[in-house]
């Protein structure tokens, strides 16, 4: 099978993007140490010199993927911040939209998600950062009158990150739930709890 050599311009950007995508898949499937540059370039149908044209090393590719995941997830976490003036009836839908966006990101970027949330040495630190962002958003929402101000929002924020992490693996990536379905379930539990007679708990799925 013929291998492509150096590319310039738009072709070069396409080659770089392809190498990045294949590297993500290889890392997610085999782990960092078992992933080889030779396997990446073979699947991309380029030469090793082409690889080194774009990336200094295997570590450089992995770190770029870590940064890409961190940047996108942080952006999505920021977007969960609630605007002022949302009526109570629309609140579950607005919260659900933010969660759905995060879960869709994991659905559409499975390899990247596995790297950033599970394989990266800094995965624990990243989860703490995301939890702090969510906590800040929850505190702002409480000050805006949406939630109780005397609740420990760090517990809620860390709980949400834990739910996203576990449900992504057990429900989302197994195909048992879609991103929107999971978001509805999470919002229902967080806002209304598990009590059968809790007002709104049964109707929430119709509103999201």
From TrEMBL:
The protein, known as: HTH tetR-type domain-containing protein
SUPFAM superfamilies, per database record: Homeodomain-like, Tetracyclin repressor-like, C-terminal domain
A UniProt-annotated Pfam family: TetR_N
Domain HTH tetR-type positions: 13-73
Keyword Repressor: yes
Keywords (A to Z) from UniProt: DNA-binding, Repressor
Record-annotated DNA-binding residue ranges: 36-55
InterPro entries: Homeodomain-like_sf, HTH-type_Tx_Regulator, HTH_TetR, Tet_transcr_reg_TetR-rel_C_sf
GO molecular function: DNA binding
């Amino acid at each position: 099978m013929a291998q492509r050599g150096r590319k310039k311009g738009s072709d070069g950007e396409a080659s770089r993007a392809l190498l990045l995508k294949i590297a993500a898949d290889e890392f997610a499937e085999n782990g960092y140490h078992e992933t080889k540059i030779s396997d990446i370039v073979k699947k991309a149908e380029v030469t090793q010199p082409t690889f080194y044209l774009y990336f200094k090393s295997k570590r450089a590719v992995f770190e770029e993927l870590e940064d890409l995941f961190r940047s996108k997830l942080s952006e999505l976490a920021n977007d969960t911040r609630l605007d002022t003036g949302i009526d109570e009836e629309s609140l579950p839908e607005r919260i659900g939209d933010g969660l759905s966006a995060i879960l869709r990101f994991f659905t559409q970027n499975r390899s990247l998600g596995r790297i950033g949330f599970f394989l990266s040495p800094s995965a624990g630190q990243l989860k703490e950062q995301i939890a702090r962002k969510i906590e800040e958003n929850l505190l702002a929402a409480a000050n805006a009158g949406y939630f109780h101000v005397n609740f420990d929002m760090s517990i809620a924020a860390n709980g949400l990150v834990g739910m996203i992490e576990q449900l992504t693996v057990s429900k989302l990536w197994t195909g048992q739930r879609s991103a929107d379905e999971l978001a509805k379930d999470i919002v229902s539990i967080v806002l209304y709890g598990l009590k059968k007679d809790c007002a709104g708990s049964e109707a929430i799925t119709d509103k999201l």
